[in-house]
Amino acid sequence: MSEGTQRKQEADHTKDCDEIIPVAESLVEAGKLQEGLDKLLTLEKLTRNDADLASTSRVLVKIISILHARSEWKLLNEYLGILSRKHGQLRQAVQKMVDEAMTYLEKVEGQTKLDLIETLREVTEGKIYLEVPRARVTRMLSAIKEAAGEITPASDLLQDLQVETFGSMDRREKVDFILEQMRLLKLQGDWDKLAIVAKRINIKWLADKDHEDLKLRYYSLMILWGLQASKYLEVCKYYRQVYDTPSVQEDESKWSPVLRNIVYFVVLAPYDNEQSDLLARVAKDDKLTKLIESFNLITCFTTPELMRWPGIEGLYGASLRQTKVFGSKGTKGVQGDIEEESGDKGDKRWEVLHDRVIEHNIRVISKYYTRITVGRLSQLLDLTPAKTEEFLSRLVVSKTVYARIDRPAGLVNFKAPKSGDDVLNEWSADVSKLMGLIEKSCHLIAKEHAVNAALKAQQSLKA
After folding, report:
1. Strand 371-373 to strand 404-406: parallel, antiparallel, or no bridges (unpaired)?
2. d(CA 224, CA 189)
3. Does position 4 have pLDDT exceeding 70, yes or no?
4. pTM exceeding 0.90
5. What are the backbone angles phi and psi of residue 392, rounded to the nearest 5°?
6. What percent of the chain lies above the pLDDT cut of 90?
7. How far apart are CA 311 and CA 113, in angstroms?
8. Mean per-residue pLDDT for 298-309?
9. What is the pLDDT of residue 1?
10. Is 142 helix (H, G, I), strand (E, B) or coil?
């Protein structure tokens, strides 16, 4: 008979259970364990064949509870496998037996617990109606292996679970499982797979106030991924999601370091339309005025004025280098700093900040100058001519600015040549403007003639 076949109950064996179970318990207490189990197995066969779910569940749970009470762990594991594989065994009865066996996991340790977990994994393998218990015992096994220092096997165990497809699992528990998968991938250092697994979580669901704990766990992992991939704009967005969390907004000790990190990573992000828009929105945050240094730093990037790197380094260098974001290897960091392990990435981000200052200055110069000498441009940027040309070429390639370098003349031209369409559009606009002026002039002349004619008519009547 197929495991999924639903059968109609043919008889009610409640009375038989009430009579035989106490007898079996008496035999077990008298030291006749096998005889007591044999009586229960006979009763189990009778209830199973007649599809009596309540009685079958009662018998199965009683068998394993007797073995648990007697600490017969080897027999318990054997009977879990035997009873679950019985021909025509009822699914709900097996489910109740497995649920009962899972309660024993909290009371045992060591090899006994490992054996029971492996048995439960074998019993639940391939059974959709037991997918949730299988996921839970697999997570227990993964935690044991992690505690033993076996990170890769622990991660592999959880990656085999596609919990997002489990219809019988609560959504919150699903997200919790996926976050655990991401955490183990982080420990394993598999950042590419972590990004793939993260897409299984619907971030709109995390926005609910009841799921704040899961939301904060999710974004803490995504921030680490963004730092690893040097995706500073993404890191800024993740911090903004944390910043918008109600529990964070209510506590200044929580939102102030988050807002500080938002400023750091939005200025580190490469310039484009999205970064420029986000920079402007962050700068308008009223709470930013309480963080004087961060407010002044972001103001430098939103104001169309030159920033001299020696001045920026002198004003903000000491405090920025104390953070893990910009600090060198071994920096202890400040309160609410990033969780990234100290390394040489802080020094690299400090160099990136220097680059962003230079790029900002080039954009500002391109607005105020149509032509400038390479020497003067290098002087304004505090760079050598070679470095100046390198940065300028990078911005031209990314189409952030338009520039052409005349090396023999030593000139940089920021004025973009007009295309044929632009010239025609300007000519058309000028002609339209000219025709408008002519029409207005004609109207005024006609009006003046009419006024003069009326005055002459009045004078002739008076005469």
Report:
1. unpaired
2. 11
3. no
4. no
5. -65, -40
6. 28
7. 63
8. 91
9. 41
10. helix
Instruction: Report the C-alpha gap between 409 and 404 in whole angstroms.
Output: 12
Asked if 243 contacts 215 with a C-beta cutoff of 8 angstroms, the reply is no
Start-end of H helices in 199-308: 203-206, 212-229, 232-243, 246-249, 252-268, 273-283, 292-302
Three-class HEC string of 426-437? HHHHHHHHHHHH
Query: Can you tell me the mean pLDDT for 315-341?
Result: 82
3-class DSSP state of 405: strand
* 240 DSSP assignment: H
pLDDT confidence bin for 50, thresholds 50/70/90: confident
* C-alpha span between 176 and 152 (Å, rounded): 19
Distance CA 380, CA 195 (A): 41
pLDDT of the residue at 463: 63
Q: Which residues contact 106 (CB under 8 A, 6 or more apart)?
A: none
Contacts of 50 (CB under 8 A, 6+ apart): 9, 10, 11, 13
The two tokens of residue 256 are: 């102030």
Q: What gap in Å lies between CA 59 and CA 46, rounded to an integer?
A: 11
How many C-beta atoms lie closer than 10 Å to residue 287's C-beta?
13
* Amino acid in position 441: S
CB 419 within 8 A of CB 430: no
Other C-beta atoms within 10 Å of 55: how many? 26
Any residues with CB less than 8 A from the CB of 22 and at least 6 apart, and which? none
160's torsion region: left (phi>0), alpha (psi -120 to 50) or beta?
alpha
Residues 6+ apart with CB under 8 A from 414: 365, 366, 369, 370, 371, 372, 401, 402, 403
User: Locate tokens 């569940």: which residue?
Assistant: 57
Of residues 193, 185, 135, 134, the one with CA closest to residue 155? 185
At a CB cut-off of 8 Å and minimum separation 6, what does 107 contact? none
Radius of gyration of the CA atoms of the chain, in A: 38
- For 21, the token pair is 């179970």
Tokens of 154: 């622990």
